[in-house]
């Protein structure tokens, strides 16, 4: 097709010592798409995201973002070009206040009044954070910390948002709230690549999906088709 993907992984390979965690996968996300990568513990999902953001080196293959190779790009360049990750474990600075954590999202920006507006918008989306803006982030609940991490990502003005297990460890109501915000962000045109162990939640919030097993993509397709696929239902949605 004539559509240029916003990001594409080509024959991507990553290894830790002798262990090949990612074994030559192809994956792409078009501009404006919401795509999920699902799979069991240890399948290689997080490693794939780490390779995109340069936290682990590639053994083989290529990563192109916005039509350019980004292998070896410093994090600052990726952030400035709109490639923003919300990491597993959230990457919150526990000693800093909520406001200070959010301000970290703006470190590549110079437009102070726009930054203030974006920060207020995060507080409007997450009123719980507004009430606690001067509080140390380390004292927040897991769900509130997830909100801070997502708020910080939004303030970085993402083009492509990489979400690593946003539902991890959260109570059902908090998961619902987090995904409501993911939908809001997506509706504003941000492209999303989501990693989730909760396959149903991921597919219900995506246009397309990929299934990873032992470092390989074993299935991909339209998210709705995948929700109806008997193999996916049996293996990943806990149905017989
Ligand atoms: P999870 O949801 O449990 O994080 P995952 O699909 O994200 O699973 P990865 O974390 O990418 O899987 O792990 C893929 C494989 O790589 C696993 O076998 C894991 O043990 C191994 N691995 C991950 N990180 C490292 C590391 N820093 N050093 C060595 N091996 C690692």
What structural keywords apply?
240 residues; alpha/beta; six-stranded mixed beta sheet; four-stranded antiparallel beta sheet; 10 helices; 10 strands; binds adenosine-5'-triphosphate
Strand count, sense and barrel status of the largest sheet are: 6 strands, mixed
Name the bound molecules.
adenosine-5'-triphosphate
Write down the oligomeric state: single chain
Shape verdict: globular
Q: Roughly what fraction of the amino acids lie in strands? A: 25-35%
Mean pLDDT: 92
Structural class: alpha/beta
Low-confidence stretches: none
Number of strands: 10
Radius of gyration, Cα only, in angstroms? 18 Å
Number of distinct helices: 10
> Fraction of residues in helices?
25-40%
* Strand neighbour order, sheet with most strands: 6-7-8-3-9-10
Protein name: ABC transporter ATP-binding protein
Domain ABC transporter: 7-239
GO molecular function, one term: ATP binding
Pfam families: ABC_tran, BCA_ABC_TP_C
């Amino acid at each position: 097709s004539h559509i240029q993907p916003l990001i594409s992984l080509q024959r991507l390979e990553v290894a830790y010592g002798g262990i090949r965690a990612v074994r030559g996968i192809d994956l792409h996300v078009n501009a404006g798409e919401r795509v999920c990568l699902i799979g069991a513990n240890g399948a290689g999902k997080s490693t794939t995201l780490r390779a995109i953001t340069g936290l682990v080196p590639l053994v083989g293959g290529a990563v192109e973002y916005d039509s350019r190779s980004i292998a070896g790009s410093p994090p600052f360049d990726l952030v400035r070009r709109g490639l923003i990750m919300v990491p597993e474990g959230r990457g919150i600075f526990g000693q800093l206040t909520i406001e200070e954590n959010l301000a970290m999202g703006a470190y590549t920006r110079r437009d102070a009044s726009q930054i203030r507006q974006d920060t207020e918008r995060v507080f409007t989306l997450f009123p719980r954070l507004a009430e606690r803006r001067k509080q140390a982030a380390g004292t927040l609940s897991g769900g509130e910390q997830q909100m801070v991490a997502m708020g910080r990502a939004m303030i970085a003005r993402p083009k492509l948002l990489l979400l690593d297990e946003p539902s991890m460890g959260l109570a059902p109501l908090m998961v619902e709230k987090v995904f409501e915000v993911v939908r809001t962000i997506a509706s504003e045109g941000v492209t999303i690549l989501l990693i989730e162990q909760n396959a149903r939640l991921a597919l219900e919030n995506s246009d397309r999906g990929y299934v990873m097993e032992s470092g390989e993509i074993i299935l991909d397709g339209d998210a709705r088709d995948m929700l109806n696929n008997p193999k996916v239902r049996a293996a990943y949605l806990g149905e017989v």
